[in-house]
Amino acid sequence: MSYVVGVSSGAFTVTSQEEKPQLVGLFKKAQSAITKGVQFVQLDLESVAEFKEPDLVENIKKVKSMKVRFGVHSETAAFGIEMSEPDSAIQTDYENGHRRLAEILDESRNIEAEYVLIHSSESVPFELLGRHLQPAVLVDVWGRPLRDFIEKEKQWVEKWIIPGEFDQGLKEGGSFMWADLIGGRDLEEYLNSNWEKYTRSTEYEFKTQSREGKVVSEEDKKSIKKNWYENERKDLLNYFLGFIESRSHHYGPERYAYYIIAKWMEKNDDPLWNKIIEANIKFFAAYEGTNPEEWKEKYQIKKTEEGKWSIDNSNFREQYKLWVPAVSAKYIWGHFFQDKISGSRLPDLKEKLKVKKKDGTETSMPLVLESPMAHRGTEEWLRLPNPLQMYCLAEEVNKEAGFEAMGLAVDLEHMISIRIDPEVVAKLLPEEGGKLIRVVHAGWPAPLAPAHLPIQLGSEQQRYLYRVYYQLRQKGFGKDPKVDSFIIFERGGPETFQESILSLRNIVEFLSKDTPPKDLPLEFAGIKTGQIASWERQLTTIKEHAEEPLKGVLAVPEEEHTFLGGAAVAKPGGTEKWKKEEYK
Question: Who has greater pLDDT, 90 or 550?
Fold first, then answer.
């Protein structure tokens, strides 16, 4: 069977005092599956220190000898962990996050985990960066200093950062980035203002005054202005290059790295740029009940004459939810392809996902991406929240890596809580796209995450889960008998397991039979033939007693004052009281 039902271990830090001894470390968490009626457990990692538990490898082997399998849910801010995100453009975050994830992958492979799951992005939402202080030491998608990236790409990037010629004014280009850097002023206005100040300076007067009867021509004045303009541009560029390697804190400098990488992706027709933007347009159009063409018209979004989605276009640029996910995905991509640059100081993460089997063949322990949760009020602002975006990333990573390095996790509770309609996602997922879904986190599909409520047999929630999973199955989820797809009940407490696991087993049974949601029998709700609550049993009982004579004589007296009122009237003085109270 390609579907494997499992449970999450739960977290030591949030469980009850009575249960803490059962979840203190990965060994105890792995053992917890034994009493839950399943043979797969997702280990909720709360610290890399858990991998240093004494005798962990040997103890895990004991658990595996009982046919218990497991995957690892990596660290997450949802557990209250201070962590660095893989889509960060801040140097310290990029490097620390990379090395920590590399260690988690190494240790997870060492204990033979079947996957490692991370939340796709819990970084500060792009729209909120302007109010968050950050160090301005920025990096490119491979973690190299952004200044080095600009030097390497200087043929185009310098002219984009400060676009235009001195006698033609500024083209839009990247001039929009300068507003925060020069006190909220427009770059062209700033240069013009500086030129006016310069023309009033003694230096300018000296250069343009008549000397020894020689008059400075208009052509000479134009040349003076051109030289001044070029020097001003160099000064601005040097200021920018110094700024992006400053360890002083500024408000949201990470934005500048995202803008520059976005332009780079645009120029190179990067597959992640084009595919993610197109997927986003389709999703938001469907979410708003319209079609992509009408949606683009509504927000005045259009391609350039060269057929590109351009960050230079202000209408497009302000729709952060369209292009920020593409840049976020590219930064995550960079962690897996350190071999594409020379002299990298960081390990190549895709190599950490390769697993050699005992027979000498090679398989993989995929990194699985899951939609994160968001703080109230920022539900739609996350950088990489949508499985459709993650699909584009996983597809590209696997294609370039040559093996299954990355997969998807679908959590309906997380998706609904950040206003992503799971059925729209299922509909828009490419044909065969469900094959990349390796993990499903199951639970009551609540809009207020983290709820982690039980799935009751026969409930509307159980039927809704089945409906979405069935749609995903039509796109390939769980159809390959050679590849296991894990359906994990994420626990909310010790009392929530039993019925939820029974509900999931019924979901798996009918998914495997390809039963359409409208054709689900009563067995799906736990009512099986022969049980006391089954229709067959009830009908049989009725037929057995249908012709029996009535036992005794039934008599129903006339009730002038209703059943309860009749008893009240029978009491002394009751009739008069009845008349007074009857219509009150």
Answer: 90
First to last CA, the chain: 67
The distance from CA 235 to its chain's CA centroid, rounded to whole angstroms, is 40
Length of the chain: 584
- The mean pLDDT of 258-284, rounded to a whole number, is 97
- pTM above the 0.85 mark? yes
In this structure, what token pair is assigned to residue 416? 């609904």
Encoding tokens for residue 72?
């690892």
| Distances in whole angstroms, Cα of residue 74 to Cα of each of 2, 120, 391 | 24, 11, 19
- Whether 529 shows a pLDDT value over 70: the answer reads no
* Domains and their CATH numbers in the chain: 3-124+316-525 (3.20.20.150), 146-244 (no CATH), 554-584 (no CATH)
Phi-psi region of 205 (alpha: psi -120 to 50; beta: other; left: phi over 0): alpha
CA 291 to chain centre: 24
- What is the rounded CA–CA span in Å between residue 71 and residue 35? 18
Residue whose pair of structure tokens reads 């796709």 in the numeric block? 120
Q: Name the phi and psi angles at 485, rounded to 5.
A: -115, 125
pLDDT digits (tens, 9 = 90+) for 496-505: 678 899 999 9
- Other CB atoms within 10 A of residue 11 CB: 18
Q: What is the pLDDT of residues 48-91, one digit of tens each?
A: 999 999 999 999 999 999 999 999 999 988 777 878 899 999 99
3-state helix, strand, coil in the chain (%, to 5): 50, 10, 40
